[in-house]
Structure to design on (314 residues):
């Protein structure tokens, strides 16, 4: 089994993500410079957080049009896992891997704090080690994390249970107060149609060791590994 | 032929514009109340194309493929 973490110009959570995967969880992981393309097959590709291309034009817009994203889209079309975290989520949405877009927070400031999330589905390669309705805690750190999509798209995502996580209070209630950025329907993470792509604004790699205050994020990576093992790849 | 193209990207009508809201508040603090305020971005491109129609088509392609995300902005292009 092998994961790839892609480093774009301006990625800054790439090394944290490699650390969580390789040193904390123990899955072999390549840090791939975007210009090198995907040189081999991977079980999972992670698009890490950061400020690729300085968030010029729109967050994730420029990185989404780099040639390596054609490799990532091919990998996803072949059923490979793709996890987009924060700026990686913006890149994933901009490249059409999931519908919608992450744009400026409702209150125009950068939010950086722990957030409670309700796990909305355990039926995905990223959440299979969770229980539906479970409340977890992961940090958010973004200025452009408000999920926006046409109402019919949101309804479609809800019907297909493709909202993986929603912002909630510690009690699991999804309220406007618990929503750090004004995301539609409190959406914090969205799955692709085939459920093998997850984009999410909160940072699981920053919550993968108890010393960081939470291990909840680690279970997202472990779910991915469990999924790959079940698919016959080890 | 060379063409000068001006592209304007704005939010669709009714879309939340936090930047515009913050700017309106700042104007109010300066004692200049406004009835409304919206933001837009303007790009100026030089293009080489055989015809004006071709230049317009290329400008639209710039909008669709990169400058305007289809979810939020509306765009206008004007070939000078």
């Amino acid at each position: 089994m092998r994961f790839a973490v892609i480093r774009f110009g301006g990625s800054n959570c790439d090394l944290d993500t490699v650390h969580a995967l390789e040193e904390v969880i123990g899955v072999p992981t390549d840090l791939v410079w975007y210009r090198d393309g995907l040189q081999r097959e991977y079980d999972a590709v992670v698009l890490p957080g950061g400020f690729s291309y300085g968030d010029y034009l729109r967050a994730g817009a420029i990185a989404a049009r780099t040639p390596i994203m054609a490799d990532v889209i091919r990998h996803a079309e072949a059923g490979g896992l793709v996890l987009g975290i924060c700026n990686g989520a913006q890149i994933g949405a901009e490249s059409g891997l999931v519908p919608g877009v992450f744009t400026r927070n409702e209150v125009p400031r950068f939010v950086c704090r722990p957030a409670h999330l309700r796990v909305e589905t355990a039926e995905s390669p990223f959440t299979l080690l969770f229980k539906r309705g479970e409340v977890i805690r992961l940090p958010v750190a973004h200025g452009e994390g408000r999920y926006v999509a046409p109402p019919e798209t949101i309804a479609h995502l809800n019907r297909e249970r493709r909202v993986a996580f929603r912002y909630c209070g510690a009690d699991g209630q999804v309220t406007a107060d618990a929503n750090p950025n004004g995301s539609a329907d409190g959406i914090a993470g969205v799955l692709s149609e085939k459920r093998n792509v997850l984009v999410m604004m909160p940072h699981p790699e920053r919550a993968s060791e108890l010393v960081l205050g939470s291990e909840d994020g680690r279970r997202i990576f472990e779910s991915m590994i469990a999924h790959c093992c079940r698919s016959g790849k080890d | 032929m060379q063409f000068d193209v001006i592209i304007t990207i704005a939010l669709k009508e009714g879309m939340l514009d936090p930047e515009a809201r913050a700017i309106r508040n700042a104007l109010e603090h300066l004692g200049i109340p406004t009835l409304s305020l919206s933001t837009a971005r303007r790009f100026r491109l030089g293009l080489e194309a055989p015809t004006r129609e071709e230049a317009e088509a290329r400008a639209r392609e710039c909008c669709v493929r990169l400058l305007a995300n289809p979810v939020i902005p509306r765009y206008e292009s004007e070939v000078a």
Observations:
- The helical segments of chain A are 14-25, 67-77, 87-94, 151-159, 218-230.
- The interface with chain B takes residues 57-58, 61, 65, 94, 100-101, 103-108, 146, 148-150, 182 of chain A (CB under 8 Å).
- Residues 218-230 of chain A form the longest helix (13 residues).
- Residues 3-230 of chain A form a domain with the Rossmann fold fold (CATH 3.40.50.880).
